[in-house]
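Structure, all two chains, one model.
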Amino acid sequence: MCPGCGVVHYQNPRMVVGCIIEEQGNLLLCKRAIQPRHGYWTVPAGFLELGESTVQGAVRETWEEAGARVQVIAPYAHFDIPYIGQAYIFYRARMLSAEYSAGTESLEVKWVPPAQIPWDALAFQVVRVSLEMFVQDQQSGQYRTHHGIISRDAEGRYTLEEHLALPLSHR
Amino acid sequence: MCPGCGVVHYQNPRMVVGCIIEEQGNLLLCKRAIQPRHGYWTVPAGFLELGESTVQGAVRETWEEAGARVQVIAPYAHFDIPYIGQAYIFYRARMLSAEYSAGTESLEVKWVPPAQIPWDALAFQVVRVSLEMFVQDQQSGQYRTHHGIISRDAEGRYTLEEHLALPLSHR
């Protein structure tokens, strides 16, 4: 409903697009400078905008939040999160140059080895799930593409229903 | 901008979710009873709604438009269509019972063998692209999962940039 006049506008779930960027095994993470979850860690991601593809949106968000120019390698994950009306779409990406820096929405951006991922200080459950899968895929040496639903029950427990985890050779 | 009062509301691309339903090689198609593209053929699909996953939305649209209860087998395609601010997400599905019927948004629903797909009377370019891929996959005996962008140039020509076509064994 419009807060200005009360007219009802139709609302649909929104896509959040982002990149999981890997160099020599390390992942590029951002510490959030904005609410919600100020001060917590995430991968660069944000709302898809009109006129751009999900790849373009993921690349733009990475530039805005992490000051990094990246190239998408392949789709990595699609997670529906019905209880917040969002679908997260992550791409696997590589750096096009070595430069990165904290954008206005980040307090800090840094390379993190898998063993030092701040699991207790990640911003969102979908980031945790995606990074857990990514680290598993790194260890197995085979990147997959993932598709599923993240739910939360009345006690605040999360569940992941995975529809698909397709093997995908590294490229 | 709200037509009621002029307040600006943020708009994001929307997800359209649907099913490609196959039985004994035939595909379940719907003839549209609504605009745009009234009288043209499509697979059951529509806007994802708040509170549902993309799988749930695809199953609901199939029930509403084709009167069919289906079970999703696997993700089939994700196509970004930036020039209309939409992302189409199709699942491969099977019938849970033999019943189907035209819903209020369909003039007719019927099983169509691949050789009789009405290519000149399909409602949307994304439906054409998806059915072309599906028929190819049927012929090769190997279902893939597809990911790409559909663009349209100033002359109205469509292009498809495919990021990924992963082999997916039939299941």
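The mean pLDDT of chain A is 92.
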